[in-house]
Amino acid sequence: MFKTYNVEIKNLISKKDPSTDWKKVLDNHKEMIAKIQHERLIHLLVTIFVGSVMTTSSFIVIVTKQLELLVIALPLLILFTAYLFHYRYLENTTQSWYVLEDEIKKH
User: Fold this and answer.
1) Domain locations in the chain?
2) What is the C-alpha separation between 36 and 42, in angstroms, rounded?
3) Share of the chain above pLDDT 90, in %
4) Which residues touch 97 (CB under 8 Å, ≥6 apart)?
5) Which of 56, 57, 92, 93 could make an S-S bridge to 73, C-beta 3.0–4.6 Å?
6) What is the DSSP string of the chain?
7) pLDDT of 2
8) How far is it, in rounded angstroms, from Cα 97 to Cα 79?
9) In this predicted model, what pLDDT tens digit does every residue of 47-95 receive, in sequence order?
10) pTM for the complete prediction?
């Protein structure tokens, strides 16, 4: 959803069509920013939680020296890494949408 919208809004801004209702575009863009901010917040909380669980499980593996527990720790490490990349995408997209909002306001 966000990737599609990102392409659409960039295309709309680059066309600079005089018949475009920029007020509606701005209102819609602000609504999309609110949605991505909510998504970003939820993913931040989940990322923090998964990171905490991963850290705790890794600590337990180190302290107990039971390598069998790596069955829990390694998938959490992979999951945490994936969440970090996704959160990075959400953060960068949100920041770029703030710039696009300024461009829309100029019209």
Assistant:
1) 33-107
2) 10
3) 68
4) 6, 9, 29, 32, 33, 36
5) 57
6) -HHHHHHHHHHHHHH--TT--HHHHHHHHHHHHHHHHHHHHHHHHHHHHHHHHHHHHHHHHHHH--GGGHHHHHHHHHHHHHHHHHHHHHHHHHHHHHHHHHHHHH-
7) 84
8) 27
9) 999 999 999 999 999 999 888 888 989 999 999 999 999 999 999 999 9
10) 0.78
